[in-house]
Amino acid sequence: MSKRTQRQRLLDLFLSAHGAEVGLPQILSLQISQFGARLKELRALGFDIQNRQEHHGGQTHSFYRLVSGPSTPAPAFAPAPSFTKADSLFGDISPDRSYLE
C-alpha cells in the first residue's frame, strides 16, 4: 500500500471536482500543512490552478480550480540529487584517515 503525499491528495481533490471550483474549507479539510506550498509545487509541475476570492460581509472566501494539467505526465517522485565531492562548498569533508584513533 502506497501512502499518498499531501501534494497527491490535493491533486486528487482537484481531479475529483472535474474542473469545478474547490472551496478553501474543502482544501483545509485535507489537513495539509502549508497548502500554499503544495499549490506552488503543483503549478511548478505544469498544473494550471486558478484562484478566486469573494468578499461577503467582511469575510473573504477563496476558491481554487484546476484548469489544465502538464503536457507530460508528472513523475511519481523526484529522485534525490546525487552529489560528488566537487559539489561541496567545503571541498572534501570526509574524515581524515591519516591518523589512528
Tally of helical runs? 3
Please estimate the helix content: 25-40%
Distance between the termini: 46 Å
Structural shape = elongated
Beta strand %: 15-25%
Q: Provide the spatial order of strands within the biggest beta sheet.
A: 1-3-2
Structural class from helices and strands? alpha+beta
Number of E-type strands:
3
Give the arrangement of secondary structure elements.
Layout lengths: L5 H11 L5 E2 H5 L6 H10 L3 E9 L2 E10 L33
Helix pairs in contact: 1-3
Task: Please tell me about this protein's structure.
The protein contains 3 helices and 3 strands, in the order αβααββ. It has 101 residues and is of the alpha+beta class. The chain has a domain at 6-70: Arc Repressor Mutant, subunit A (Orthogonal Bundle), CATH 1.10.10. A 3-stranded antiparallel β-sheet has the order 1-3-2. It is elongated, with a radius of gyration of 21 Å. It starts with 5 loop residues before the first helix and ends in a 33-residue tail after the last strand.
